[in-house]
Design a protein that fits this description.
Largest sheet: none
Number of helices: 2
Number of strands: 0
Shape: elongated
Radius of gyration: 31 Å
Structural class: mainly alpha
Mean pLDDT: 83
Order of helices and strands: HH
Strand content: under 5%
């Protein structure tokens, strides 16, 4: 009885795999309006903007420091 149950499960698994792997036409099309492009570009732009907002002060300070070193200007002391 145990081997009969295994045989039924095996046959069912093979049937499910064959149904899943059968290529059926979808009767659909890709939307040419550019919605996909928008969905890809907007998160990328949002990530770039967030990165800029997080690191903008550090980038500005690095460029200011480099500029002052090149010009020979001493750094201002910060008042805390």
């Amino acid at each position: 009885m145990n081997s009969a149950n295994f045989c039924k499960r095996t046959n069912l698994a093979i049937l499910v795999v064959l149904i899943v792997l059968t290529g059926l036409p979808a009767y659909a099309y890709a939307d040419p309006s550019g919605g996909t492009l928008f969905q890809v570009l907007m998160p990328m732009l949002a990530a770039l903007w967030a990165t800029w907002m997080i690191f903008a002060n550090r980038i500005r300070n690095a460029f200011t420091s480099l500029y002052r070193k090149l010009r020979g200007i001493e750094a201002e002391e910060s008042v805390d």
